[in-house]
Structure formats: structure tokens, C-alpha cells
């Protein structure tokens, strides 16, 4: 039972708010190709000839349809370094994409987006071809849900997402000794009506030692600020597999509140309003980082009880009080039976 994972008091409950996204830009310079980049037989089209699926820091992701010699092959998702930034940032993004390709090539799990190729497109841009996990990220679906009804996702759907994400994290943590390092709704891809659920974007993953701790001196936890646990915000915080668990808990919170953690984009009555950056309370936002955000219990009936318990235990401030991915999988699989 999920209650077996619970330690400490329940979270305080108040209103939570709206959804957005975190994105960014880049270009590839004529530099030495990474050793991993060697797929001369694969022809990746230039960006204008592919459907854009999304974008992130220094990269864009495209849908590449493949039908060689008239055959119908499964499409790929292609992550390409953007062509609009200076050489300095290009080298940073090239290094990051190369690292992601190297890590992804060694991962084989149904809840982790699969590796397909690492090469150059016809326009010269460096690109990583991956399994096509679905047209939409979980973040896209959260935004759609907010615009459509503002109702939380059904508890059964949240449980399905939680179990599949936890299985992917268990594989990363236990079998590959890797911390994902940037768990959030935009790094989960969904196919169809939650037919498949896969974790993506392993470019900032970090190695874990036998104690599930990041110890390499060069290793730097990146993450995305609203999803960071307290230890990742401290100057000399010890980063473990439990950093992913905290962010995992906040991803479940996103599905219950249709909001970004710690960012209030609604007025006091819960009515939608145009966000004015001048109204943003920086002090309150930074004080809230690394804590368990509140939820509005009036929006959630008794079917959400176990989801709330799971969210609560995963967002305990002390890492030792959070469950491991393996414990979450075991608990959820037991509850499903």
C-alpha cells in the first residue's frame, strides 16, 4: 500500500495554479565531428522538411517520417542543434547532445525513449535520431487539459503515468546507475491515449555510485528550477537518486493541478487572468523552491487519496524520507493487482 511509504505529516493544502513551458535556442559550427557521429547511410532531412515537435535548450525536435524504397518504417524523433547561436554556445550544445547520444545508445527499456542514430543532417546540423515516443509530451497534454476543462487528470491515468515513469527510473537508477537529472512533464512523451509512456532527454544524466550518490567531482546537477529538490539548491548539497524522486512527485502534482510548481498564474478567485511579470513575487517563489507545493483538496475526490499520498512521500524535504524508484514500482504494482 502507498501508505506504507508515508513518513511524516500530510502536506498543507491551499490553491495551486496554471501551466507553461521552459524552452531555448542554437547553430552548429564547422568543427570536428564527435567520434560517436558515424552513420553515413542515414539521410536526415534539413529542418524545413520535417514537422517540428518541440524545442528545448539549444535544440529542436522534429518528426522524421521514413519510407525507404516505398516501405513504411516507423518514424523517428530527431533532436537537432539549432543553427542560430554563436560558436561558444554551439560547442556547449554539441557536447551535451553528444553526451546524450552516448548515454541513450546504452539504454534499452520500454519506458525510456530508444536510440536510433547520431549523425549530421543534410544542412550540416548535428542530430540525434530517437524512437518516436509520441507527438505530445505530458506537458502538452497538461496544457490541453487546462484549456479544455481545468479538471485534474483522472486518478487512474495519474497512476498509470506514475507506474511507467517509476519503472523507467528504477531501470536508470538500479541497472544503469544513472540519475536522470531533469524529470518533469515536458520530459515525458505520450503516445495516443496514454498507450505508451516514456521518459526522454537524458542529456544531463549523472553517474551514481554504489550508494546511489553523485560523487564525480566534475558532475553538476542541472535540473529545471521549479522541480529541483532542496539539496540541489544548496551550495554543497549531496545529490542522490532521490533528487529524481522529488521531481517525479512534482510531475504527479502537475497532473493534479495543471500547474508549474511554485508559479501562481491565477488570481485569488481561481479565475484565469493575463500574467503580468511585474506581479510575480520573486521572494515568495524562491522561498518555495525545494518545498512541497500545496494542492486544493476541493478539486480532488476520494479516488485521488493514494495519488496524494504518493506525491506527499516523494516530496519529503529530506531525501532519506523519500522512497526509491524500486519501492514505488513495488507499491504501485501491488495496488494495481
Explain what this protein looks like in three dimensions.
The chain has helices spanning 87-105, 138-148, 155-175, 230-233, 242-257, 282-288, 305-314, 325-336; strands at residues 51-56, 59-66, 73-81, 115-120, 126-131, 136-137, 178-179, 188-191, 196-199, 206-207. Strand 4 (115-120) and strand 5 form a beta hairpin. The strands form 3 sheets. Strands 1-2-3-5-4 form a 5-stranded antiparallel β-sheet, covered by helices on one side. A 3-stranded antiparallel β-sheet has the order 6-8-9. A two-stranded antiparallel ribbon has the order 7-10. Helix 3 (155-175) packs antiparallel against helix 8 (325-336) and helix 5 (242-257) runs antiparallel to helix 7. With 337 residues, the chain is of the alpha+beta class. The longest helix is centred in the middle third of the chain and has 21 residues, at 155-175. It is built from 8 helices and 10 strands. The protein is globular and about 55 Å long.
Cα radius of gyration in angstroms = 20 Å
Task: Classify the secondary structure makeup into a structural class.
Answer: alpha+beta
Report the end-to-end length measured between terminal Cα atoms. 11 Å
Silhouette: globular
- Strands of the widest sheet, in order across it, are 1-2-3-5-4
Q: What is the typical, i.e. mean, pLDDT? A: 80
In helices, the fraction of residues equals: 25-40%
Number of strands: 10
Task: List low-pLDDT spans.
Answer: 8-32, 265-274
Order of helices and strands: EEEHEEEHHEEEEHHHHH
User: β content, as a range?
Assistant: 5-15%
For the sheet with most strands, the description reads: 5 strands, antiparallel
**What is the count of DSSP helices, taking H or I runs of 4+ residues?**
8
Amino acid at each position: 500500500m502507498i501508505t506504507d511509504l508515508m513518513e511524516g505529516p500530510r502536506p498543507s493544502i491551499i490553491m495551486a495554479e496554471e501551466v507553461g513551458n521552459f524552452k531555448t535556442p542554437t547553430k552548429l559550427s564547422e568543427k570536428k565531428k564527435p567520434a560517436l557521429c558515424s552513420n553515413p547511410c542515414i539521410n536526415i532531412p534539413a529542418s524545413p522538411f520535417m514537422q517540428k515537435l518541440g524545442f528545448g535548450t539549444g535544440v529542436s525536435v522534429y518528426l522524421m517520417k521514413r519510407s525507404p524504397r516505398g516501405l513504411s518504417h516507423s518514424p523517428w524523433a530527431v533532436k537537432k542543434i539549432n543553427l542560430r547561436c554563436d560558436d561558444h554556445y554551439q560547442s556547449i550544445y554539441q557536447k551535451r547532445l553528444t553526451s546524450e547520444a552516448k548515454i541513450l545508445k546504452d539504454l534499452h527499456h520500454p519506458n525510456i525513449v530508444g536510440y536510433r542514430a547520431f549523425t549530421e543532417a543534410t544542412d550540416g546540423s548535428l542530430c540525434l535520431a530517437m524512437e518516436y515516443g509520441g507527438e505530445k509530451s505530458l506537458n502538452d497534454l497538461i496544457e490541453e487539459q487546462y484549456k479544455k476543462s481545468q479538471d485534474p487528470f483522472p486518478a487512474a491515468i495519474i497512476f498509470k503515468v506514475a507506474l511507467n515513469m517509476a519503472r523507467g527510473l528504477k531501470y536508470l537508477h538500479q541497472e544503469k546507475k544513472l540519475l536522470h537529472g531533469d524529470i518533469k512533464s515536458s520530459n515525458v512523451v505520450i503516445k495516443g491515449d496514454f498507450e505508451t509512456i516514456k521518459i526522454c532527454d537524458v542529456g544531463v544524466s549523472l553517474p551514481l555510485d554504489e550508494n546511489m550518490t553523485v560523487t564525480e567531482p566534475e558532475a553538476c546537477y542541472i535540473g529545471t528550477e521549479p522541480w529541483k529538490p532542496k539539496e540541489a539548491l544548496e551550495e554543497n548539497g549531496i545529490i542522490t537518486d532521490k533528487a529524481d524522486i522529488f521531481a517525479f512527485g512534482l510531475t504527479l502534482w502537475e497532473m493534479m493541478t495543471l500547474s508549474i510548481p511554485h508559479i501562481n498564474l491565477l488570481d485569488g478567485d481561481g479565475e484565469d487572468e493575463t500574467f503580468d511579470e511585474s506581479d510575480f513575487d520573486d521572494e515568495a517563489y524562491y522561498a518555495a523552491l525545494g518545498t512541497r507545493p500545496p494542492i486544493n483538496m476541493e478539486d480532488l475526490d476520494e479516488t485521488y487519496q493514494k495519488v496524494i499520498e504518493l506525491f506527499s512521500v516523494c516530496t519529503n524535504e529530506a531525501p532519506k524520507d523519500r522512497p526509491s524508484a524500486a519501492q514505488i514500482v513495488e507499491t504501485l504494482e501491488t495496488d494495481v493487482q
